[in-house]
Each structure stands twice: as structure tokens, then as C-alpha cells.
Amino acid sequence: MTHTKDIQRPSRELVEGLANLGSATASGELSRLGIRDPHLRGPVPLSPGKAVAGPALTLQFMPKREDLAAGDEYDDPEKQLHRHVLYHVQEGDIVVVDARGDMASGVFGEMMMTYLKGRGGAGVVVDGCLRDTPKVKPLGLGLWARGTTPNFHTQTDLMPFAVNEPVACGGTLVMPGDIIIADDDGAVVVPIALAPALLEAGSQHAEWEDFSRLRLSQGGDLRKYYPLSKDAEPEYRAWRASNPPRS
């Protein structure tokens, strides 16, 4: 029997707070925290308007080698490791797949994504392709991938190789249990050790941006209000005192 390990999940409060930041704010603040480029490059949004955040379950694909591949996908389904990452899914989890940027193999299709939805998963980020997308998109999951294909996952050049191990998704390291923030700008990875600091910095950033956005919409001076200058700080503090922070 195949055994794969689970991940340690962060608190729901931490994840929900990060979800409110969005990928762009998270990326900018992470750069100030020492992570130069957290963007998972390549996967693009296939579910426009969807925004999610959650801990990463990881799946690694490798080039297919016939003596190690499991054969036909229905011969012995339990040997197919892409199933096993889904067995670990809990509410809010995001499955992150290193599919090597391959454009010929559909990592997941309708049935697997229906199972993910039924388990409460938030979505997938795939450095490769999905299949059955006309049936997958109506499920309402967050979907980020390089593209689509009619081929199933081991039909061509790939085979699933490891579950909940470090992966390179879009050329960026993702550790199992890191937090993914994904929206129409793309997906970023938040190292779990930096998540509390990101939430604090990002929340402060979002608050002064609320004020700056208002002043800019009223014709305010860009040099004064973005980024918020020291000259504008007293005005911002007065505005903040009469406008409680977003919950």
C-alpha cells in the first residue's frame, strides 16, 4: 500500500488574513522581508475573478520512465500518486503541482477536481496543464495552470513521482505547508515562517493604501499620497482615527 505524508496547517485566522492582502501586496511586502520573487511564474488564472489563499499540498512529476511508470491509469489506480495528494485535502487546501511546464499531460481532470471540491479544497496551481476544463471550471475552484490539453496525466511524457515534498512550481521553491495566495495577478508562495510578519506588514500597507486611494481619486498629489509621504502622515492618522481598519 502507498503511504504519503500530510502537512502541518497554519491557523485559519492567519490564512484568512493573508487572503485579504491579495497576491500583489503579498509579493511587494515579501520582497521587503527578503524574498525577492515569490511569484509562481507560468501558471495563469483559468478562473477569472477567483481569489484564494491556503496551505500547499505538493505533487511532483518527473519524466516518465517505463520501468517506473504505473502503466495504464486504470490498471492499478492506487499506484497513481496524483490521487494520493488529493487524499490529504482538507478545507481550504491548495494543491501545487510541479509538472515541469509540460504542455502535453493533463495533470487533473473532471473527476479528480470534483473530488477536490467535495473535500473542501480551494484550488490548484499547476506548472503544466489541466484537462476537462469545460467541466472543471463550473466547479468553482481556483484554477491556475499553464494551459489545457485533452491528454490524461501519464499519456505522454510525465509520471507523478512524490507527494508533499519540496517542489519547483514555475521555477519557485514551494515547501509543503507554505501558504499560497492566488488571484487574477497570479500565484505567490508565502514561506510559512514569514507569514505572520507578512500579515502585519501587508495589513498596514492595505490601510494606508485605502487612504491614498481616496485622496488620489479626489485629485490629490501623487507625490504626496503614493507612496504615503511623511507630510501626509498626520492627515492619514486623523483619517484612520475616524475610519476603523478593515476587519
What is the element layout, followed by pairings?
Layout: H1 12-19, H2 23-32, E1 44-45, E2 52-63, H3 81-87, E3 94-98, H4 110-118, E4 123-130, H5 133-136, E5 142-148, E6 158-163, E7 167-169, E8 172-174, E9 179-183, E10 186-190, H6 195-217, H7 222-225, H8 233-242
Parallel strand pairs: 2-3, 3-4, 4-5
Antiparallel strand pairs: 1-5, 2-6, 2-9, 7-8, 9-10
Notes on the structure:
This protein is of the alpha/beta class. It has two domains: 12-190, Ribonuclease E inhibitor RraA/RraA-like (Glucose Oxidase, domain 1, 3-Layer(bba) Sandwich), CATH 3.50.30; 197-242, no CATH class. The chain is built from eight helices and ten strands. The strands form two sheets. Strands 1, 2, 3, 4, 5, 6, 9 and 10 form an eight-stranded mixed β-sheet that branches. The protein has a two-stranded antiparallel ribbon with strand order 7-8. The model has no long low-confidence stretch (mean pLDDT 92).
Report helical residue fraction: 25-40%
Shape: elongated
The number of distinct structural domains comes to 2
SS summary, helix count: 8
N-C termini distance: 46 Å
What CATH first level of the largest domain would be assigned? Alpha Beta
Return Rg in Å. 20 Å
User: What's the CATH topology label of the largest domain?
Assistant: Glucose Oxidase, domain 1
Uncertain runs are none
Q: Averaging pLDDT over every residue, what do you get?
A: 92
CATH superfamily of the largest domain: Ribonuclease E inhibitor RraA/RraA-like
Count of DSSP E strands? 10
**Main sheet properties:** 8 strands, mixed
Strand content: 15-25%
CATH architecture of the largest domain: 3-Layer(bba) Sandwich
Elements, N to C (H/E) = HHEEHEHEHEEEEEEHHH
Helix and strand content put the structural class at alpha/beta
